[in-house]
Design brief:
Radius of gyration: 21 Å
CATH topology of the largest domain: SH3 type barrels
CATH class of the largest domain: Mainly Beta
Shape: flat
Distance between the termini: 49 Å
Strand order of the largest sheet: 1-6-2-3-4-5
Largest sheet: 6 strands, antiparallel
Order of helices and strands: EEEEEEEEEEEEEEEE
Length: 187
C-alpha cells in the first residue's frame, strides 16, 4: 500500500483488475477545498491512457513490476519470440504487448515488464533509438532542400519512416521508437 504522497513517474498501481503506470501527476492545492492529485496513467495490459484524480492522502495498491532484459529472436505464427539474457529461457509474446513492433529487428535487446508476483509479461519496451538500414527510398531531387520536405523510406524491418530528402538508399539511420520518426544518420 502507498499513498498519493508516494506518487512518482513510473510507479505501478493495481486498479480495476488492471495494472497502470503513472505517466505524469500533479499535486493541486486549491485555495478553497481539499488538496488532490491529478494523474495520467497508462494501462500496461491494453496500452490505453486514463486520467484519474485522487484525494490527497488516499491509499492505493502498488504492483511490483520488474524490467527484465531479453533479446528478440524471431517472429512466427505463435508470436514474437524472446530469450532471457540471464538464464537463456525463451518466451513467446503476442504482438499487442509490443508497441511499435515494426521497428523490432533480429538480435535487438529489449526490456520486458513482468508482474513479479504472477510472473506474467505485461509489455515490451524497445530502447529509445534503434539503428536501421534503409532498403528502399526514392532519390531526392537536387534543389528541393529549401523546405523541410520529407519522403517515405522503407527500412530493413519493413516499417516506413519519413526521412529528409538527402537520405539515400543503403544508409544507416537512427529511428526514435517512441514516435517512429527519423532522428539522424549513423556515421
Amino acid at each position: 500500500m502507498a499513498s498519493t504522497a508516494d506518487f512518482k513517474n513510473g510507479l505501478c498501481l493495481e486498479m480495476n483488475n488492471d495494472i497502470f503506470s503513472i505517466v505524469e501527476f500533479q499535486h493541486v492545492k486549491p485555495g478553497k477545498g481539499a488538496a488532490f492529485v491529478r494523474t495520467k496513467m497508462k494501462s500496461l495490459r491494453t496500452g490505453k491512457t486514463l486520467e484519474k484524480t485522487f484525494n490527497a492522502g488516499e491509499k492505493v495498491t502498488t504492483a511490483r513490476v520488474e524490467k527484465r532484459a531479453h533479446q528478440f529472436l524471431y517472429k512466427d505464427d505463435l508470436g514474437y519470440n524472446f530469450m532471457d539474457t540471464d538464464n537463456f529461457e525463451q518466451i513467446s509474446l503476442e504482438e499487442r504487448l509490443i508497441e511499435r513492433s515494426n521497428l523490432l529487428k533480429d538480435g535487438q535487446l529489449v526490456d520486458i515488464l513482468v508482474h513479479a508476483e504472477h510472473e506474467t509479461p505485461l509489455s515490451v519496451e524497445l530502447p529509445p533509438f534503434v539503428e536501421l538500414m534503409i532498403t528502399y527510398t526514392e532519390p531526392g531531387i537536387k534543389g528541393d532542400t529549401a523546405t523541410n520536405a520529407l519522403k517515405p523510406a522503407t527500412v530493413e524491418t519493413g516499417a516506413t519512416v519519413m526521412v529528409p530528402l538527402f537520405v539515400e538508399q543503403d544508409t544507416l539511420i537512427k529511428v526514435d521508437t517512441r514516435d517512429g520518426s527519423y532522428s539522424e544518420r549513423v556515421k
